[in-house]
Design a protein that fits this description.
Layout (H helix, E strand, L loop, with lengths): L1 H24 L6 E5 L6 H17 L3 E5 L6 H8 L7 E6 L1 H9 L10 E11 L1 E4 L8 H10 L5 E4 L5 H13 L4 E4 L3 H9 L5 E2 L3 H9 L4 E5 L25 E9 L4 H15 L2 H9 L3 E2 L4 H22 L6
Parallel strand pairs: 1-2, 1-3, 6-7, 6-8
Antiparallel strand pairs: 3-10, 4-10, 4-11, 5-8, 5-9
């Protein structure tokens, strides 16, 4: 009786596994969508379309981008979290959807349990910039200026709880100065008003800031990260300027729904890491201030968890909470 029960159980498990294995071996058998949690244009869209192109060529199937904006990425995240875990719905998960959003607001998804981490693609540091007319040239002189002009010093934010907001609050706390924060609905309008002289400093992602730095409408003071960025070799890191713990970056990766078959996860991860290891793609991303950050699915999952812990701690310390 025990032997018959065991054989029946084994047969049931085998019957469940065989279709999944067969599906994984034949994957992808139809077009795959990559959800981008933003409107067309910008870093998220660039990553989505670049990965769609690379995966399509490598795997001999169509990978297409679907832009789903709204709710700071929550609508797109919900869509993917609820999708079938068959590998045909993927998403560009980034520091907003899988880092800062869960840290500052109640989101209708679990950034860890509702997703399968597949592969990190890359990241761009944040850059501390000031108005070119300001009489400061480094972090020390900026802090001195801000302390002397506490009632008038202002900075722009792309929105409550965004990385550029949290990074500036982290810096402001560490440096010990007060400033008026002006929140915008996105980094684009924040930059627009900054260029018009409405605010005095900000900490956007380098990819977004670089065109304005080249036009000299933004003066770079320091960058986040563990080393200087090759596009701004003369600009020191914030750590070089005397403050540790500023290694956060605006990162982008590929995730799928929870319970994605391991075989599909590993294949996608392998192809993505192979793609970002190629010199041609590295040069293309570097031109957009995005540095490749290859990781296994396991390391990427652990990285996402560490990001949520990091930004949750800062949000709690600075009492930053976005009430929906």
């Amino acid at each position: 009786m025990a032997r018959r029960t065991w054989l029946h159980f084994a047969a049931s498990v085998l019957c469940a596994l065989v279709p999944a294995l067969a599906a994984a071996q034949g994957y992808p058998a139809k077009p795959v969508r990559i959800v981008v949690p933003a409107q067309p244009g910008g870093g998220l869209d660039l990553i989505g379309r670049t990965m769609a192109d690379q995966l399509g060529r490598a795997m001999g199937q169509t990978f297409f981008v679907e832009n789903i904006s709204g709710g700071g990425g929550t609508i797109a995240s919900q869509t993917v979290a609820r999708a079938a875990p068959d590998g045909y719905t993927l998403m560009v998960g980034y520091v907003g959807t899988h880092g800062t959003n869960p840290a500052v607001r109640k989101v209708p998804y679990d950034a860890l349990r509702d997703f399968t981490a597949i592969a990190m693609v890359g990241g761009t540091p944040n850059v501390l910039v000031v108005q070119p007319s300001m009489p400061v040239g480094d972090v020390a002189s900026l802090i001195e200026f801000a302390r002397k002009n506490a009632k008038t010093t202002s900075y722009a934010s792309g929105g409550i709880g965004t990385l550029n907001h949290l990074a500036m609050e982290q810096f402001r706390s560490a440096a010990g100065f007060e400033a008026i924060v002006v929140h915008y609905r996105g980094i684009a309008p924040a930059i627009k008003d900054f260029r018009a002289g409405q605010t005095m400093m900000m900490m956007p992602g380098l990819a977004a800031a670089m065109p304005h730095i080249r036009m000299q409408t933004m003066k770079p003071i320091a960058v986040t990260g563990l080393k200087r960025h090759p596009l701004l070799p003369e600009v020191p890191t914030i750590e070089e300027s005397g403050f540790k713990g500023f290694d956060g970056v605006q990162w982008y990766g590929i995730v799928g729904p929870a319970k994605l078959p391991a075989e599909i996860t590993q294949r996608l991860s392998g192809e993505i890491n192979k793609a970002i290891g190629a010199r041609a793609l590295q040069e293309r991303l570097s031109a957009e201030a995005i540095e490749p950050m290859p990781m296994t699915p396991e390391k990427f999952g652990a990285f996402i968890q560490s990001e949520i812990v990091r930004w949750s701690a800062l949000a709690k310390e600075r009492r930053i909470q976005l009430d929906d």
